[in-house]
């Protein structure tokens, strides 16, 4: 099977057309990077990168402009984008560091650079393979194909050290493609730190780990091998934190979290936002254990209230990666409540408790996924499956709150209809009414209006 066979037809045809146009103009266009790697692995490629040799930026633009809609925002760096096709076209570039920050680089396009020299600036050998779409020739100056077949992650050159983000790239590549890092690559990674990396770049690599990793545990263990847990102390604290063997035969919290993440990865639903929220909740769900774990008088290991006390620790971890308020609002309640499905099931909880839980976590189906991953992180899995999760999903389906919090029935307009003027008391009345709704005091608008009249009389 050709590498081109793993590229969608519109992109494949466009890539071939680009290569032919640029060949006629005196240049050579090669597919490079992830699309080549994925093609060799038989994985459909989404983003196509093309590197052009023998032509300067003016010549590339002049040749392609009559045939494609070009985005030329990156033209100063020799980069063009074919609009609507997810194809990036770039000249090979020379990069030289001018300072410690990730932006401290001088970048110059060099159309006369050889494919071997251009490949030397890439991070890993598996990403340094090029492919000529016109001839089918594979250019592999750093033996990336051999490493790919051996499931080996190896850096291309010492230039790897110029961008410490490559350590996190290695983390997510290992998790996605089941790779094992070469000892010399681990040794080089140990010399690097994320000190000058902005959180936006960190976030993108952690996102890929959570959304694309198949063996997330393996990626995290690479981070540990590279001595990078010191930069994520909330994770470092999990390593060596003991758990009660009766309930956790798999070992410490670090090991448990890895198993949970692999279980989550096996059951992703394909909705990027939902998977992101659930994945980070699974990663953070036991952050409270290191500070709460102790051995009782009977020799049993306990971690009381680790779910609740882990919330601020999870928040600190997430603050290293993102400023997205929505992430905090939707991940942290799942961390806090991840033990509730089992507790409610054992107690035979009623509708009120379930409504309140739905109001807290926004989506019960998310919480069930987190709790399910938590249970799957404790091998061997019980033969009875996951009855508490199915019970909770069935109950919330009956209440129509499986994938949303209960919507308030009483709103401000209902107060206005009773002649109540807006003011600070509005919020207090509506909050109290919502609490009553969660308790089942009313279930439709007619009942709600009757309740509101009594409540207003009582308060005012």
From TrEMBL:
Keyword Ribosomal protein: no
A Pfam family the protein falls into: PolyA_pol_RNAbd
Domain annotation tRNA nucleotidyltransferase/poly(A) polymerase RNA and SrmB- binding: ranges: 181-237
Keyword annotations from UniProtKB, A to Z: ATP-binding, Magnesium, Metal-binding, Nucleotide-binding, Nucleotidyltransferase, RNA repair, RNA-binding, Transferase, tRNA processing
Signal peptide start and end residues: none
Domain HD: 264-368
InterPro entries according to UniProt: HD/PDEase_dom, HD_domain, NT_sf, PolA_pol_head_dom, PolyA_RNA-bd, tRNA_CCA-adding_enzyme
The family this protein is said to belong to: Belongs to the tRNA nucleotidyltransferase/poly(A) polymerase family.
Name by which UniProt lists this protein: HD domain-containing protein
Source organism of this protein record: Thalassobacterium sedimentorum
Lineage, opening ranks: Bacteria, Pseudomonadati, Verrucomicrobiota, Opitutia, Puniceicoccales
């Amino acid at each position: 099977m050709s590498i081109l066979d793993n590229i969608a037809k519109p992109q494949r045809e466009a890539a071939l057309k680009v290569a032919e146009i640029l060949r006629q103009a005196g240049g050579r266009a090669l597919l490079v990077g992830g699309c080549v790697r994925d093609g060799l692995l038989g994985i459909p490629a989404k983003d196509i990168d093309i590197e052009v040799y023998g032509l300067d930026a003016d010549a590339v633009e002049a040749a392609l402009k009559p045939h494609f809609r070009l985005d030329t925002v990156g033209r100063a760096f020799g980069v063009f984008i074919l609009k609507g096709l997810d194809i990036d076209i770039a000249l090979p570039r020379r990069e030289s560091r001018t300072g410690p920050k990730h932006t401290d680089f001088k970048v110059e396009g060099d159309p006369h650079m050889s494919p071997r020299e251009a490949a030397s600036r890439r991070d890993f050998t598996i990403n340094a393979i090029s492919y000529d779409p016109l001839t089918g020739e594979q250019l592999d100056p750093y033996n990336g194909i051999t490493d790919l077949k051996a499931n080996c992650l190896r850096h291309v050159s010492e230039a790897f050290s110029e961008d410490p983000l490559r350590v996190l790239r290695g983390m997510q590549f290992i998790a996605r493609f089941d790779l094992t890092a070469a000892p010399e690559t681990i040794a080089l990674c140990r010399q690097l730190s994320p000190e000058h990396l902005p959180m936006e770049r960190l976030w993108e690599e952690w996102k890929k780990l959570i959304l694309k990793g198949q063996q997330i545990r393996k990626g995290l263990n690479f981070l540990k091998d590279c001595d990078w847990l010191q930069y994520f102390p909330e994770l470092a604290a999990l390593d060596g934190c003991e758990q009660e063997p009766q309930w956790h035969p798999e070992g410490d919290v670090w090991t448990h979290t890895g198993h949970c993440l692999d279980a989550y990865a096996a059951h992703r639903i394909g909705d990027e936002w939902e998977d992101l929220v659930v994945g980070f909740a699974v990663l953070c769900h036991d952050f409270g254990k290191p500070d709460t774990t102790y051995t009782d008088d009977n020799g049993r290991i306990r971690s009381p209230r680790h779910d609740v006390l882990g919330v601020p620790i999870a928040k600190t971890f997430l603050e290293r990666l993102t400023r997205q308020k929505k992430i905090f609002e939707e991940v942290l309640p799942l961390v806090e409540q991840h033990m509730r499905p089992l507790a409610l099931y054992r107690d035979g909880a009623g509708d009120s408790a379930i409504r309140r839980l739905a109001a807290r976590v926004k989506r019960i189906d998310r919480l069930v996924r987190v709790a399910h991953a938590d249970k799957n992180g404790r091998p061997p899995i019980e033969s009875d499956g996951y009855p508490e999760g199915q019970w909770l999903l069935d109950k919330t389906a009956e209440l129509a709150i499986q994938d949303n919090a209960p919507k308030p029935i009483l709103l401000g307009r209902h107060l206005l209809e009773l002649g109540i003027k807006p003011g600070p008391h509005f919020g207090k009345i509506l909050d109290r009414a919502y609490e009553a709704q969660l308790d089942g005091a009313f279930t439709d608008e007619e009942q709600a209006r009757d309740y509101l009249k009594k409540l207003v009389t009582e308060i005012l």
